[in-house]
Design a protein that fits this description.
alpha/beta; Rossmann fold; seven-stranded parallel sheet; about 45% helix; globular
Length: about 260
C-alpha cells in the first residue's frame, strides 16, 4: 500500500549533492517541491539534503546503473509521490587532448553525460505521459552547440543530449509533457575548477544555472542558455565561416578552456 501524501509536488535531481545540482534543488525547494537528490556519495548527499531542509531526501545513485535508476523511479513514485520534474544533471568533464585520453575516460563521459540521460528519460517519461504532465530537464552545456578543443568527447556527448532532446520535443507536442535543455557556460563549481574562461567571459555560478533551470520549467522554454546572451552569441558564431570562427577562437583564447586546464 502506498504512503504517498496527496498533493505533494515531487522533483528528482541527479548529481544533486553539490554544485549545480544543489543549486537546482534549492530553487525547487523554494517553490514548494519535495526534492529527491540522487548522487554517488550518500553521506555528502545526506548532508546536502539536511542543509536544504526537511523536504529534501537523499538517495545513493550511480546514473550508469539502469537497475538503480529504475529502482529510484519506483521508490519515489510509490513512497513520495508522482514525479513532476526530473532533472538530469549528473555529469563528468575530463579535459585534455583527445589522443591523450584513454578509452575508459571517454567511455565514462559517454556513459554519464549521454547514455544515462537517455536511460533516465526513458524510465520516467511513460509515467509522465500517462498523467499528461511533467517536465524533464537536461543540464547540457554550451559546448553542446559550440564544441571546444580539449573537450572533444564531452562536447560530443552534450551535443547528443541537445539533439536527443530536440527530437523528443517534437514527439511530445500536445502530450502535456515538456523536455528542456539548459546550456550553461563554464560554471564556477568543483567540476570547472582549474579552468580559465575565454577572454571577455566569466564563469557562471551554480545559482545562475539553477535559476536557468527554473526559467525553463516555469516559462516552458526548450533551450535556455546561461547567461542568456550566450544563445545569441552561439547563433552568430555558428553562422560564421570556419576560418573566421578559428580566428575568433584564437583571439579570445578559447583553447585554454579544454587544453589549458588542470586535468
Amino acid at each position: 500500500m502506498s504512503d504517498v501524501a496527496p498533493g505533494v509536488r515531487v522533483a528528482v535531481v541527479t548529481g544533486g549533492a553539490r554544485g549545480i545540482g544543489r543549486a537546482v534543488a534549492a530553487e525547487l525547494v523554494a517553490r514548494g517541491f519535495t526534492v529527491v537528490l540522487g548522487d554517488l556519495d550518500l553521506e555528502v548527499t545526506r548532508t546536502t539534503a539536511a542543509a536544504l531542509g526537511p523536504d529534501v531526501v537523499a538517495r545513493r545513485l550511480d546514473v550508469r546503473d539502469t537497475v538503480l535508476l529504475a529502482r529510484l523511479v519506483d521508490e519515489v513514485e510509490d513512497e513520495i509521490g508522482p514525479i513532476e520534474v526530473w532533472v538530469n544533471n549528473a555529469g563528468v568533464m575530463p579535459t585534455g587532448r583527445f589522443t591523450d585520453q584513454d578509452a575508459a575516460a571517454a567511455d565514462l563521459v559517454v556513459d554519464v553525460d549521454y547514455r544515462a540521460v537517455v536511460h533516465a528519460t526513458r524510465l520516467v517519461l511513460p509515467r509522465m505521459l500517462a498523467r499528461g504532465r511533467g517536465v524533464v530537464v537536461q543540464v547540457a552545456s554550451a559546448t553542446g552547440s559550440k564544441p571546444m578543443a580539449g573537450l572533444a568527447v564531452y562536447s560530443g556527448a552534450k551535443a547528443a543530449v541537445v539533439g536527443f532532446s530536440e527530437a523528443l520535443r517534437r514527439e511530445l507536442r500536445g502530450t502535456g509533457v515538456q523536455v528542456s535543455v539548459v546550456l550553461p557556460y563554464l560554471a564556477a563549481t568543483a567540476m570547472g575548477a582549474g579552468i580559465t574562461p575565454q577572454r571577455g567571459f566569466r564563469a557562471v555560478t551554480a545559482e545562475q544555472v539553477g535559476r536557468g533551470v527554473m526559467w525553463a520549467i516555469e516559462r516552458r522554454r526548450f533551450a535556455v542558455y546561461v547567461p542568456r546572451r550566450l544563445g545569441v552569441l552561439a547563433r552568430v558564431f555558428g553562422s560564421l565561416p570556419l576560418r573566421v570562427r578559428d580566428a575568433v577562437d584564437d583571439v579570445i583564447a578559447s583553447d585554454r578552456i579544454g587544453l589549458g586546464a588542470e586535468r
